Amino acid sequence: MSARSTILRPRMLSRAAVNTIVGIAVLYTLLPVLWLLLAASKDRDALFSSNILDLSNFSFGQNLSDLLAMDGGLYGRWYVNSLLYAVVGAALSALISVACGYAFDKYRFRHKEKVFGLVLAAVMVPQTVLALPLYLMASKVGAVDTFWAVFIPVLFNPFGVYLGRIFSEGYVPREVLEAARVDGAGELATYLKVSLRMLGPGLVTVFLFQLTAIWNNFFLPMVMLSDQHLYPLSLGLYQWNSSASVSPEYYPVVVMGSLLAVLPLIAAFVLLQRFWRSGLTAGAVK
Amino acid sequence: MTTTATPARTAAGADAAPARRARMSTRRREGGACAVLMTPFLVLLTIVFLIPVGTAVWLSFFSDDQPGLGFGPESTVFVGLRSYAAVLTDPTFLGGLGLVAVYCLIYIPLMVIAALALALLLDSGVVRLRASAQLALYLPHAVPGIIAAIIWLYLYTPGISPVVDLLAKGDITIDFLGVNTVLPSIVNIALWSNLGYNMVIFYAALQAVPREVIEASVVDGAGWLRTALQIKTPLVRSAVVMVALFTLIWALQLFTEPMLLSQSTPMINSRFTPSMYIYDAAFTRNNYSLAAAASVILLCCTIALSYGVTRFTTRSREEADR
Fold first, then answer.
1. Which of A142, B2, B267, B289 has a CA that sits 20 to 30 A from residue A247's CA?
2. What is the CATH number of domain A62-285?
3. What are phi and psi of B63, to 5 degrees?
4. How many Å lie between the alpha carbon of B29 and the closest alpha carbon of chain A?
5. Domains of chain B and any CATH numbers
């Protein structure tokens, strides 16, 4: 009895210690988000009183309507813009990248590995390096301050090509393609009808990666856009936050706007949970 | 396209000819399909990557010579390495480079160790509610960088922040945006945003470690900690390298967080990091060749350091195998 308890006690202790450490880490990641949620329900005076748990002056609805009315409803515009850039951009980008990764895996051509090396090198190149030349190119064709100046560059996702190649190796067996060829199916028809279906989970993973990246995108829109009506949420909130130091009525609006801007990605991750895990694994194990 | 038909088959007689033709046409069809699948991406690669990188290099060697008083046509002249010399002797650029170096030295080890430790703890099997804990830790990654910076800016701001308030009640006053604290404050924002994401990568890699290996070490009498550090950690080395590499590439581009914080603290100037220097040179001072030279230098640093990280880790792996 006593011998058993001495074996158990240290285990119980370390078990408690492990759970405490993980618990602290969870609090570290959750509390700021919780603060955002609570702060969004405060009016301006309560926001500055620091007493975040006092729910007596609950003005969530008021803040929401203020947000939507601010500067002639710009926020709604930014929201639609962000959704367009991110959802349409990520979907198109995933299709383009995975198709290319699939071709890298299934077909042979000259200098294939050299071209693939170039794709991998592109993953490393900082956004800030490309922004100025892209701005100059866009201004040459008159695309600065248009939707396309932001939309076209975000379609480029070299990491998606890398993932596409790995997924193609893993999900699409060569025998299936051989069988389709014997049946006389065209290559592209096979890709669209057979391979793409097998690549489905990989496609969703690449989509999620790019969705996050575009939703986060800040540098490029900042360089390209000056018309507020084309701003994505990130740039719009940045601008409102800079106005807040002069006119404090922007504070509650920035807080509420930040809260709403977080929701689509959380929804996407919760809905598509089982896909992103497989994508992270594919990237890490290779 | 190369044809790889073997001589033996071509000499096999008349029967082989239609088969060869069929094979040839298959090859042609494959080539066509391959081109169709790759073209959209290769066009993007050219427009969004190759031409811009080329343009940046080109711009860094040329400069617009403004004629006197700003009248008359501008002329572009070759200036050789003048822009590079200007950037490399500019104390604000070197200061930014040094700052990012310090940032990397604090942030990358902290991130890799914390994320790996959490993944090992979760993998030990004693954590309750493992799936929920993972989801909670991952949550900040769904928060865009600019919004993470806004949240933390408010949490750093006296008067709004419950954290500063709480510390004040305990007679501790910290200015989170002071001279010595602003960099750790930025590290904290980045750590908060990416900790869970990297933890999930490590956790996924740990899940791929064969269970027999773990069981064998437990049978050999290795404790939990020894199994984690000496058995599991070496087996997920490739994931560690990947996380370190991506963290490094992102850290060198440091822009969003200091840009937002600079709205509220005088400790961050407009050339605080190399990326901010590039933005300032290009779009505030309109000095494209200076911005391009700084971009190329940042690019070279990124390539050299990434190469160094992968090189260093492959060499240490070879030594470990020996």
1. B267
2. 1.10.3720.10
3. -145, 145
4. 7
5. 7-78 (no CATH), 89-321 (1.10.3720.10)
